[in-house]
Write a structure and sequence with these properties.
The complex is a heterodimer of chains A (about 160) and B (about 350). Chain A is α+β, with helices and mostly antiparallel strands. Chain A has two domains: about 1-85; about 95-145, Archaeosine Trna-guanine Transglycosylase, Chain: A, domain 4 (Roll). Chain A has helices at about 15-25, 55-60, 85-90, 105-110; strands at about 10, 35-40, 45, 65-70, 70-75, 80, 100, 115, 125-130, 130-140, 145. In chain A, a hairpin with a 2-residue loop joins strand 9 (about 125-130) and strand 10. The longest helix of chain A is centred in the first third of the chain and has 15 residues, at about 15-25. With about 350 residues, chain B is of the alpha/beta class. Chain B is built from 13 helices and 15 strands. Chain B has helices at about 15-20, 25-35, 50-65, 105-110, 110-115, 125-130, 150-155, 170-180, 195-205, 230-235, 235-255, 275-285, 325-330; strands at about 40-45, 65-70, 75-85, 115-120, 140, 160-165, 190, 210-215, 260-270, 290-295, 305, 310, 310-315, 320-325, 335-340. In chain B, the strands form three sheets. In chain B, strands 5, 6, 7, 8, 9, 10, 11, 14 and 15 form a nine-stranded mixed sheet that branches. In chain B, strands 2-3-1-4 form a four-stranded antiparallel sheet, with helices on both faces. A two-stranded antiparallel sheet of chain B has the order 12-13. In chain B, strand 12 and strand 13 form a beta hairpin. Chain B is globular. Chain B starts with 12 loop residues before the first helix and ends in a 6-residue tail after the last strand. The mean pLDDT of chain B is about 95. The interface of A and B includes residues 48, 65 and 85 of A. Strand 4 (about 65-70) of chain A pairs antiparallel with strand 7 (about 190) of chain B, so a sheet runs across the interface.
């Protein structure tokens, strides 16, 4: 978010409805615990602070506002791809398109590599290892494509 | 890095002289001894994502770490004492019979990548413990990067209420944003502005005043010698004097943006009285009956603020500030002071 903020919007009305419907359709998520903010065309943030849109605009006119809230999803036009935090925040609501990983697969995933696994699913799936949510991948027939950002990847082999 | 690998530069004579005015005899010897020792690693469980019990079990089971929770009322705080030895660590076995962690091991593990904990030195946990924000409050972290205290504050607030996390430097702001994201902090607005200027800008708006403000001021870092021995080389009395002015300005402007009844926590990681008690003394004088210094309750051994330094007498109330020396709790050094705004000041 930059000041004054033209590319940052708090989602309302149709846009918010579309976001909610899409999350429900993809993952079974029904409740969004805060304001949904879109930055640019793709990045979606969740903000649970009490500042109103008017207050945020006032602040944005006075100082450079880098961001509000946490990045939770990327708008891929036809679907939303949850970030690691998105998958963790909605953990208890996600009921669809979950891929459970074993330890070896989790290790591969967290190193940033694709996981060769037939899941019978297509499109964005939430990766889960035991009780841990590990963000989203894109499932195709033979594999799951990885989107873990470099800064969050493991750099060594797990014991 | 093993202990024998650490190269500790010699402290500058004036710094040695000044520390000898603050500490005497065995206390001073102990200060110098521990200042050359590496820190014991410590972490804070990110309760926004996981409970301390769950995290402790995960870290013990998955990484073989031996953890200790040193403060009864803060179970989220853990010291990483070492690892269960495997028999291959001949050179790095510690006195306790534990293997030492590999360099960077804390930050590279899965649980850290998933945002379950923050690597945070014990003394740097104290400002938020001294003035914990509550759910629903409007909280300002004036000098927020790298985000240890902001993420700690957000966890105390359970992501409810609003935090404004301000940082002046672009590079440091990016680190702050990245840490906030990793920790799943959703109630924070990150701003980039020089602290005093931010306060002056906010004063022109109709935005609400803050319930709590943390001024963890830029300082000469005398308390960080153990984690950052290069401070021995960088230390300079002119910097101390310059920073003292900056700190007073930051405090002054921040205090004006506090609501009546609101609280401000002033902290530094340095021992120099010019950056600590002198700042507190000056603010007590300037804000007169608009300000009250209030006692702080901390889980660590601390010492009262000093009331005399190099011929200057400070207000007796400065004693309510607390100094933390590295030798008292096997930590880094720190200074905290807590204030309440009683009424608007006529400044």
């Amino acid at each position: 978010m930059s000041a004054p903020t033209e590319t940052t919007t708090i989602l309302e009305g149709k846009e918010l409805k579309k976001f909610k419907e899409q999350l429900e359709e993809q993952f079974g998520i029904t409740e969004i615990p805060g304001k949904v903010i879109k930055r640019g065309k793709e990045k979606v943030f969740l903000f649970t602070g009490d500042f109103t849109e008017k207050e945020m605009k006032t602040l944005g006119y006075e100082v450079f506002v880098e961001r509000a809230g946490t990045y939770i999803a990327k708008d891929m036009e036809d679907a939303f791809r949850l970030s690691i935090e998105g998958s963790q925040i909605f953990k208890n609501q996600i009921t669809k398109n979950i891929v459970e990983l074993n330890e070896e697969e989790m290790d591969t995933w967290m190193h940033g590599s694709e996981v060769l696994k037939k899941t019978g699913l297509k499109g964005y799936v939430v990766m889960k290892y035991k009780n841990d949510m590990l963000g989203c991948g894109k499932a195709s027939e033979q594999k799951i494509t990885n989107f873990i950002p470099k800064s969050r990847r493991l750099k060594y082999k797990l014991a | 890095m093993t202990r024998k690998d650490r190269t500790i530069p010699e402290p500058k004579p004036l710094f040695v002289e000044r520390m000898a005015k603050l500490l005497k005899g065995k206390d001073l010897e102990e200060f110098w001894r521990i200042s050359k020792e590496p820190l014991t690693p410590s972490i804070r469980c990110n309760t926004l994502k996981i409970s301390p019990e769950e995290l402790k079990k995960k870290l013990e089971d998955n990484n073989d770490w031996i953890l200790e929770q040193p403060w009864k009322d803060c179970p989220e705080v853990m010291i990483v004492k070492g690892k269960k030895p495997t028999g291959h660590e001949k050179e790095i076995l510690r006195e306790e019979g534990l293997a030492k962690l590999a360099p960077g091991e804390l930050g590279r593990c899965l649980e850290h990548m998933l945002g379950y904990f923050y690597v945070q030195e014990l003394s740097s946990l104290l400002p938020v413990i001294a003035m914990p924000p509550q759910e629903g409050e409007l909280y300002l972290d004036m000098c927020a990067a790298p985000g240890s205290k902001t993420t700690q504050a957000a966890a105390k607030m359970n992501n409810k209420g609003t935090i404004i996390a301000n940082e002046m430097a672009m590079g440091r702001m990016r680190i702050l944003a990245s840490n906030l994201e990793r920790c799943g902090v959703t109630n924070t607005i990150v701003t980039r502005k020089e602290g005093q200027a931010l306060m002056k800008r906010l004063a022109k708006t109709d935005l609400p005043k803050f319930d709590k403000i943390s001024v963890d001021a830029p300082c000469s870092g005398e308390g960080t010698l153990r984690g950052s021995p290069k401070t021995f080389l960088m230390w300079n009395i002119n910097t101390v004097k310059y920073l003292s002015k900056v700190q007073k300005e930051l405090f002054r402007e921040a205090f004006k943006q506090l609501r009546v009844g609101g609280e401000l926590l002033y902290s530094t990681c340095t021992h120099s009285p010019e950056e600590n008690e002198e700042v507190v003394d000056k603010m007590l004088q300037e804000f007169e009956d608009s300000i009250e210094i209030i006692p702080v309750k901390l889980p660590a051994k601390t010492r009262d603020g000093i009331t005399e330094w190099e011929g200057k007498r400070y207000d007796e109330r400065v004693k309510l500030s607390q100094r933390l020396y590295p030798q008292d709790n096997n930590t880094e050094g720190f200074f905290v002071s807590r204030f309440k705004k009683l009424k608007e000041a006529n400044l």
